[in-house]
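Researcher: Quick one. two chains, 510 residues in total.
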Amino acid sequence: MKIFRHLTTALTTFSALVAGGAFAFVVALTFVVSIFRDVEISAWNVVASQIGPWFLLFIGVYAIHNTLPIAIAHGRTRREFLVAASGFSVVLALVMTVAEWLGFLVEGGIYSLMDWSAGEHGTQYAYFQMYLVWVAVGMLCAAAFDRFGAGGIFVLPVAFAFVVITRVQIPGSGDFPFFRNVPSVLGSGWHVLSVAAFLVALAGTWAIARDMPVRQRSA
Amino acid sequence: MRIDVQGLTVRYGDTVAIDDMSFSLSGNKIYGLLGRNGAGKTSLMSALAGYRKPSGSVQLDGAPVFENAASMRQVCLVRHSADAADKSDKVSHVLEYGAAWRDTWDNDYALELVDLFRIGLKTKVGELSLGQRSALGVVIGLASRSPLTMLDESHLGMDTPTRYAFYDTLLHDFMAHPRTIVISTHLIEELSSLLEEVLIIDAGRLVLQEEADVLRSRGTEVTGNASDVDEFTAGLTVLGEKSLGRTKAAMVYGALDDGQLVRARQLGLELGPIALQDLFVHLTEPVGGKR
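Model:
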């Protein structure tokens, strides 16, 4: 419980502050852009659908790569940490979804006042699942590279497949140079696949990190 | 806290860092873990601290340590770069980790030590000098008040006054809160007065485990007239010699029997204890430089 409390208070607070800062930045940027051209898309959607997932991936990596060894150095087991990190990933995804929702709410008000067009964005559930999978994939990748070194590269195709699944129902996910829009070929099955991707990513993290050596240094 | 290691082997690929090592420590002492570079000290401590899954058995008070929550709570390993900290963390955050995650953490003592070693609470760990990072490691190790506290080359980068402050603090804290402390170091003579028992490892194997006083008695420094010293040491294992004019001092390995003691007195030779460091060199590097 101590690890869970620490992760949620420290990293979730940090993530919420970053989200707040990002929101303030894109609102200011939108006003600057409006001087030169019409505003036709939601700037916050670019953050929520493109930068947000990468940020959550980073938090997932940070949790395993940086915080797990510290927890072990302070006398905690990998199992205790992984239980806490699993719960933390859900809480973080929830908090970031709330931040995303609040962002759209405030941005919607500003866009209405300024008579700007925001375009469409995904459902809260779609964003929540996307954030959930990305943070879990971050943990999976960190565990794989920390344990197997360069051999961790073999987990990347799986990780890529998992994160692509989550973007099916997110409009505008091709607006940033990381992914093109993915055709909606999965129909309503996307959310089942997203949940499965999250669970498999988490299970993979457990399998790899459960007896992973930490702070390795040759003899 | 009793430590039992049985058939421990640690490998890094094809390299064997610890080779089928077995020993027991009865606990509540300050142990010195001595070995040359690459002897396997850090690997051994990592296995004792549950940093890696052991091949073989590592038990603390009869219970396996790896992924055993009850045992892991009892252990703190600090290496010269503080393991329990991230380089991007401020020192104050590092202490918060300890307070949050360690049931036995003594935060007042941690703050006292941070002050003693002049470490800025607002400084990031990555901005500390090597000596300050080592000192922070000592803070974490001692303030953890763990029944098994291991300090791996915690003196690295410390200047002399800081090292002496570290030794004094360690001894005072051990007297006030007796527990099992294992220290690995290359500065054997500086620390030798603190050590109650010594383990010497070499090439991943246990060379010797002995009470420090017993170990010291294994060697004798013979001082006197050069020719008398030469006569006396003929046939004995001489670890090293020093000469000044006609006076010579030779370090002899092995206990002297009564006849030899009488002969030394007849020759007017002075017999004294040998430095632990010289014994260590001898035990890990046989005369002639071949291992």
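The longest helix of chain B spans residues 160-176.
Researcher: Thanks, that's what I needed.
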